[in-house]
Amino acid sequence: MERKLLLLMLLLSCFSGAFAAPNDGSASTGSTDICMEFLGRDCDAEQRRLLQEYVGNIDIQSLSNKLQQDFAGAPRAFTALPKDHAGFVNWNKSVTDGIIRPLGTLNGKPEEENEGYFANMMVFNTKVPEIPNVLFPHGMHTYWLSCESCHPKPFKKKRGSNDFTMGDIIRGEFCGKCHGKVSFPPGTFKNCNRCHILRKEGKTPFWGDTPK
Ligand code: HEC
Ligand code: HEC
Ligand code: HEC
């Protein structure tokens, strides 16, 4: 019975996909509603704003060529997954697109509560004027990771209580504990704007508007 339900849901999602969100590549031009594109359903104004700010700049089409070069030696399954500007697998988009659905635990035990994928966006204000501020998606991290991965080390559990620099990150501390190891690396200019996405008024980041 459970299996039938699953089949039905699969069929339904195929149909709703076909009618509501044509998957013909028009997505990246902005002609498809971003909520449909990433969540497969309608969403409220705040979620739409967050999505636009947070994942709206991912241009899947222009990445496909790059992929072939960058992923020549990568596991073949990766070819099916969306990539970021630098050609690395975009694991978040893989989840929000419904391509993968990672298990919470290996032993079937209930998963640690998480606060919701798009909840709790936290801002780090950079001290350099040309560098956009950082949007840290806390909820997205608690989807992937348990609290102990970050608290109490390397991050104290209090907003604004952690003092670190970009140099620390590139050296593998704080955010760099994972970014550059299990998640996209901070040391390539193509990836700066995956974290530094909150542009300060009138300032263009020195890596330009869109990564090449
Ligand atoms: C990927 C790392 C990471 C994970 C995993 C993580 N956190 Fe955090 N958390 C942070 C960072 C970074 C901050 C902000 C610190 C700052 O502003 O300096 C933070 C802040 C907090 C705060 C302070 C909020 C405030 O408004 O002061 C609380 C509470 C918190 N986290 C709880 C949790 C809980 C509970 C979990 C597990 C469900 C969790 N965190 C998982 C990185 C993480
Ligand atoms: C994994 C996320 C992430 C990536 C990727 C990233 N940064 Fe940062 N960056 C941060 C955080 C977090 C801060 C700290 C903000 C603060 O509290 O001052 C920061 C701070 C900075 C600062 C302010 C000065 C300083 O040292 O704190 C500069 C400049 C900077 N980053 C440049 C870059 C450049 C250039 C790139 C790409 C090569 C980049 N960053 C990639 C997260 C990131
Ligand atoms: C304990 C490991 C860990 C730490 C520490 C960590 N991250 Fe992450 N981060 C991840 C994982 C895992 C993902 C999801 C997989 C992926 O996108 O590669 C992720 C994804 C992200 C994304 C999503 C980007 C996108 O385009 O989808 C941003 C932004 C980000 N991290 C910023 C930060 C910043 C800023 C810090 C430090 C304040 C930080 N992370 C600390 C593991 C970590």
Key phrases:
mainly alpha; 8 helices; 212 residues; Cytochrome C3; globular
Explained architecture:
The protein is mainly α. It has a domain at 103-212: Cytochrome C3 (Alpha-Beta Complex), CATH 3.90.10. It is built from 8 helices and 2 strands, in the order αααααββααα. It has a two-stranded antiparallel ribbon with strand order 1-2. The longest helix is centred in the first third of the chain and has 19 residues, at 2-20. 13% of the residues are buried. One heme C is lined by residues 114, 122, 136, 138, 141-142, 145, 147, 149-151, 155, 157-162.
In short:
With 212 residues, the chain is mainly alpha-helical.
Number of helices: 8
Which structural class do you get from the secondary structure elements?
mainly alpha
* Mean pLDDT rating: 72
Q: Which small molecules are bound?
A: heme C
Number of E-type strands: 2
Extract low-pLDDT stretches.
1-30, 58-64
